[in-house]
């Protein structure tokens, strides 16, 4: 089994080698750019770790892992648009629309989503693509509530905006690893806690959301409880969970 | 077998009844609006007609037919954005961004694409979703060439921007009707001609593209030749092509 750092390196390498659809023509440049700006690749690492826990080789789960990273990148590219958050920078670089123009920025996000579907559709069964579509719709709904609706329940917004893709990092990997649906329930419960944990720690780092509602210590307590529940859910699955436990532990104490 | 008009009514009815993913919350309103503004529904009619020609019931092909209409609508919603064509009207109604604001317009297009994937993923095999993703990427590439690249070959742009979705209307229906890949070749050749025919007639109606390059009579000749080739390809398939011949004939002489 690979460590989280090794899985991250494998995901990074696979992203670099990813063949984009030739009919994109020049539009491929901005898609490539938005993927290369980087990030922690935490979603594909989770997907690959779930796959390995279930005994599936990295290569078998990689298309699902890359698909979820492309959906995440699509959401950032569209969120950065002037019509949305109007961000000119992303991780210290010009955001995609700032670099290539607003029209190309819209198309780059569209293309990332479509490429994600193409990756998900490499599996014979449509289950991976279905999980991807549902998570994407949930994320879009969360973005709508966050930006267009005043005072909507913060926890619900977070569960959609951030939690849905974390959830799908796990569930897409379950299908990619060909785990029968009847055995997926504890994994899905784990997936819920993982997204929540990530979001609460994000709020602690940004002094936002949970911190504003419950104070830093309160938020920290919520994070610890979510981590504890995630570990408990992992205890219920029939798989080698060593690396996934490490991921939960490091998500709980991360400082960036 | 149903006539094209009957198929259109069935598609319209299914679109009205279409359940959107509940996690979209208020974002569903703009998605619904953009679908209700209407149109000729020519792509789903083609998909359903291909299915019936192969003996597949309408209900079996409907998810694929609706998926292609949703991708078409997604492309219109994003094309209308200020960053793209900046159109405030669509079929005599305010365009989606004009009605709901630019941010919601971006999200509405995103949601339409994701809902299309969810429809395509209702089939057990991922083949329908794969055709959808490839066509969407080709269409995006065509949009890029059309708006960002000066003087790119017009026929190539049209083949991507318009032709790719027509092509997918046929090929997604082939998978939905469970036609083995080995028998799909003449259908795929037919699909190519159908997209070309639609585009040339569009140019004749708009006095654009082919008309500017070849004059009205030249464009009309090209359209007639494309229609003739489409009929010839239909002659090669093992299916009841009566309704599809009617569709080719009416696409060739349409005046709107």
Descriptive report:
2 copies of one chain form a homodimer. With 256 residues, the first copy, chain A, is an all-alpha fold. The first copy, chain A, has a single domain, classed as Farnesyl Diphosphate Synthase (Orthogonal Bundle). Chain A contains 11 helices and 2 strands. Chain A has helices at residues 4-17, 28-36, 42-53, 58-79, 96-100, 102-120, 127-148, 154-176, 185-206, 210-234, 242-253; strands spanning 89-90, 93-94. Chain A has a two-stranded antiparallel sheet with strand order 1-2. The model of chain A has no long low-confidence stretch (mean pLDDT 95). At the A-B interface, helix 6 and helix 7 of A face helix 6 and helix 7 of B.
List the helices and strands and how they pair.
Two copies of one chain form a homodimer.
Chain A: H1 4-17, H2 28-36, H3 42-53, H4 58-79, E1 89-90, E2 93-94, H5 96-100, H6 102-120, H7 127-148, H8 154-176, H9 185-206, H10 210-234, H11 242-253
Antiparallel strand pairs in A: 1-2
């Amino acid at each position: 089994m690979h460590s989280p750092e090794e899985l991250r390196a494998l995901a990074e390498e696979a992203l670099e080698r990813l063949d984009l659809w030739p009919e994109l023509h020049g539009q491929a440049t901005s898609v490539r750019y938005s993927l290369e700006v980087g990030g922690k690749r935490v979603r594909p690492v989770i997907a690959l770790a779930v796959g390995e826990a279930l005994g599936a080789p990295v290569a078998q789960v990689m298309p699902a892992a890359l698909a979820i990273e492309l959906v995440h990148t699509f959401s950032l590219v569209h969120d950065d648009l002037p019509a949305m958050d109007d961000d000119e920078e992303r991780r210290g670089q010009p955001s995609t629309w700032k670099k290539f123009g607003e029209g190309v920025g819209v198309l780059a996000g569209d293309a990332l989503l479509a490429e994600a579907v193409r990756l998900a559709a490499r599996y014979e069964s449509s289950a991976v693509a279905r999980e991807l579509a549902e998570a994407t719709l949930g994320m879009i709904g969360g973005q709508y509530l966050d930006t267009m609706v005043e005072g909507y329940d913060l926890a619900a917004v977070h569960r959609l905006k951030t939690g849905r893709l974390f959830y799908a990092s796990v569930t897409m990997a379950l299908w990619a690893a060909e785990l029968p649906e009847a055995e997926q329930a504890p994994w899905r419960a784990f997936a819920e806690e993982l997204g929540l944990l990530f979001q609460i720690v994000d709020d602690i780092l940004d002094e936002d959301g949970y911190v504003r509602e419950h104070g830093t210590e309160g938020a920290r307590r919520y994070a610890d409880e979510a981590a504890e529940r995630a570990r408990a859910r992992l205890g219920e699955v029939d798989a080698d969970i060593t690396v996934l436990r490490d991921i939960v532990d490091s998500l709980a104490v991360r400082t960036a």
